[in-house]
Write a structure and sequence with these properties.
This protein folds into 3 domains: 140 residues, no CATH class; 103 residues, Rossmann fold (3-Layer(aba) Sandwich); 184 residues, no CATH class. The chain contains 15 helices and 12 strands.
């Protein structure tokens, strides 16, 4: 029963499932190596030494999976994140087994077995988890079996967002018993198909009647003393209280939780771009931008000549842009507009801009005007991938009207970005572009950068 999702029994069930998957993965590895013999077996082998190490290996696998947090309560049984954790746990287990065997020098094991084992076990773990997940969703959760009933205290926009997520994701193990409100006029109404069953002060009676042992509090306007009294009352009745931040309705990212001396600190989800990851990204930027400048140098020379022949004015256009942490830098592009394009003040660039020169229009359509920005990347002002840099005059305008706009300046600006490869370029919705920028910032990885660069190449037209 998923009602015990947070209890020992469900965790034990997952551990048993993963143990079976790990055992089958190891057996498959042995069969693949010594029975099928996908590579010639040049040395004799002792089957008993593999049998002796077999239960130890399964135990090490489960311990390693626990290290990568696959047994955390209220997490999905299977998702892409869980699959990645299963893979990491498998390779961690392999490293541990190699280290223990090296120290004890108990036996010599086949190298192909060591190489194949983490892949085989990862495959079986993912398959078993996926099948179990589908079973729970279709045969148990969709029918409402095993779900923990909860009250949502509040009826505002935040409550509706929370309700939709619970209703759309039964794998979290919750069902909504109803809403509680402080407004008697709302009692009896239905929100997202769920009834407002009563008022907050009658929580105890409703909880006993409907056998509810958890509430989710989404009423940020409750006074501190009222909130404290409510939590004390719930504790007396052994009702668990979950408090939902009032800014959930304007933030789609996750919340980070840190602590200082045991005191919890809540904040917006931080970007992975710090420490070692920042060094990796910078090295990647230097190598690729240097290679690009060398590779495209003939093209850049031809473009410079065409601009010089086409119209009067500088070949390289310099402009002040805002980058990481709000610092400004000089932004380089091949000039694509007439020299007096902004004689009446800053104007937002748009598609088929009449201010473009003949050559400039062609350069913009092929993104060739962006090539000098590889020099910005090499200098360290920009990155290959990141939110597109904006002019300070427009930043001042947007930051006061668009929530979280300045969060895009937590990382270096980029030549291309997640918003751009999704078609959000030039004169488009700033709010929509911001969503993609924030998603990139909060989910950065080097592979994500590579993916965006590849998509950028295909986006050329």
């Amino acid at each position: 029963m998923l009602r015990r999702h947070t209890g020992k029994s469900f965790t034990a069930l997952l551990i048993a499932l993963d143990s079976l998957a790990a055992a089958l993965g190891l057996l498959f590895t042995y069969w693949f190596r010594f029975i099928i013999k996908f590579l010639p077996v040049t040395k004799g082998y002792d089957a008993s030494q593999y049998l002796r190490i077999f239960p130890v290996a399964v135990l090490v696998w489960i311990i390693s999976l626990n290290f990568v947090h696959v047994y955390v309560p209220r997490k999905r049984i299977f998702s892409f994140d869980v699959a990645w954790r299963l893979v990491k746990g498998s390779f961690l287990a392999t490293v541990i087994m190699i280290g223990v065997n090296f120290l004890l020098r108990e036996a010599e094991y086949s190298r192909p077995v060591v190489v194949v084992a983490p892949f085989a076990v990862s495959f079986f773990l993912c398959v078993f988890r996926y099948v179990f997940y589908e079973f729970m969703i279709h045969y148990s959760l969709k029918k409402g079996k095993g779900l923990s009933p909860v009250f949502i205290v509040g009826t505002g926009q935040t409550a509706l967002i929370l309700a939709r997520r619970i209703l759309n994701h039964p794998e979290y193990g919750y069902s909504i018993a109803g809403y509680l409100t402080e407004n008697p006029d709302e009692v009896g109404q239905k929100l997202e198909g769920v009834e407002v069953v009563g008022i907050v002060k009658n929580l105890k009676n409703h909880a006993q009647k409907m056998k509810v042992r958890e509430i989710m509090l989404v009423r940020p306007d409750l006074k501190t003393d009222h909130l404290f009294d409510l939590m004390i009352d719930c504790e007396r009745e052994l009702i668990t209280v979950h408090i939902v931040p009032d800014f959930l309705e304007i933030i789609t990212s996750e919340i980070s939780v840190n602590e200082v001396g045991g005191v919890p600190l809540f904040g917006l989800k931080e970007t992975p771009l710090h420490g070692f990851n920042l060094i990796v990204k910078r090295l990647f930027d230097i190598l690729v931008s240097l290679a690009a400048l060398i590779l495209f140098s003939p093209v850049m020379a031809i473009v410079a000549l065409l601009i010089w022949l086409d119209s009067k004015g500088p070949i390289i256009y310099r402009q002040e842009r805002m980058g990481v942490n709000g610092h400004t830098f000089t932004f380089f592009k091949f000039r694509s507009m007439a020299v007096d394009a902004e004689k009446n003040g800053p104007v937002w660039a748009r598609q088929n801009d009449p201010r473009c020169t003949r050559i400039g229009a062609r350069l913009r359509s092929w993104n060739l005007d962006e090539l000098p920005q590889f020099w910005n990347v090499l200098k360290g002002d920009m990155s290959l991938v990141g939110p597109r840099p904006e002019r300070p005059v427009f930043v001042e305008k947007f930051k006061n009207g668009i929530p979280r706009y300045m969060a895009r300046h937590r990382v270096k600006s980029g030549i291309t970005g997640w918003a751009q490869v999704n078609g959000l370029r030039g004169d488009c919705s700033i709010t929509e572009r911001l969503k993609y920028d924030l998603y990139y910032i909060e989910n950065w990885s080097l592979l994500f950068d590579v993916k965006i660069l590849i998509l950028t190449l295909f986006a050329f037209h």
